[in-house]
Amino acid sequence: MWKETSKIECIDFKMTFFDCFPLVCPWMWDNLTCWQGASVGEVVVVNCPELFHDFMIPEEEIGKVSRNCTEYGWSEPYPHYLDICLLDENTTKPDMYYASVKALYTVGYSTSLVSLTTAMVILCRFRKLHCTRNFIHMNLFVSFILRAISVFIKDGVLYAQEDSDHCFVHTVACKAVMIFFHYCVMSNYFWLFIEGLYLFTLLVETFFPERRYFYWYTIVGWGTPTICVTVWAILRLHFHDTGYVTALLPNFRLQMESLLFT
């Protein structure tokens, strides 16, 4: 809510002052802060956006970010929002935040794993429940189970030691775990897609060979993610063999960085 309100106010200021005072560096909204217009050589300093106030120690002075107005326009913010407006990585508050998030999704995945395993046992045990529709449900359940297991394996590798560097050493085990994790996530989404596709087929076609369709569903659900992840892994190994875990860590800094592009 604060973002939309601040953006509207900034645009209003820009429309008001732009015509009267044309500047090399006009009023600008960068998705986090409104920067007032400036002439070449001027430095504009603003407080950290309201978004970050909840993640700062109350006794801590609110950080400030600046931009220089050059003949080519605005410079990059200095220091960066993530460096001045968030707590230092060595403080206890981010650690508590990460531990809380990890505990929360661990409980969620564990509950899901137990429930889905129970459902799989029931569907496999009673032959009267064996049909194409339930076979698709079973594959979807398996994909969810594999996704939960991959999360536990990933956490086991990443957090095996408290002082570990979260697999940034790029070990073979880390790479294998992340490839498996990506495969499970993609398979999960493909089986969700197949569930919808199956329902759509039931509505469009009154009579169709369900058994033959199920074979194609299986190929798409498990085969397509295999091809995609294999190609991704090969290209990643050859062209960009770094940062396998960066985008998947419960790292608040990376989450905040995404706000700059929305």
TrEMBL record:
InterPro entries: GPCR_2, GPCR_2-like_7TM, GPCR_2_extracell_dom_sf, GPCR_2_extracellular_dom, GPCR_2_secretin-like, GPCR_2_secretin-like_CS. It comes from the Eukaryota. It is found in: Cell membrane. The keyword Hydrolase does not apply. One of its GO terms (biological process) is adenylate cyclase-modulating G protein-coupled receptor signaling pathway. Residues 9-89, 101-262 form the G-protein coupled receptors family 2 profile domain. SMART domains: HormR. Gene3D superfamilies: GPCR, family 2, extracellular hormone receptor domain, Rhodopsin 7-helix transmembrane proteins. Its main location: membrane. This is Adenylate cyclase activating polypeptide 1a (pituitary) receptor type I.
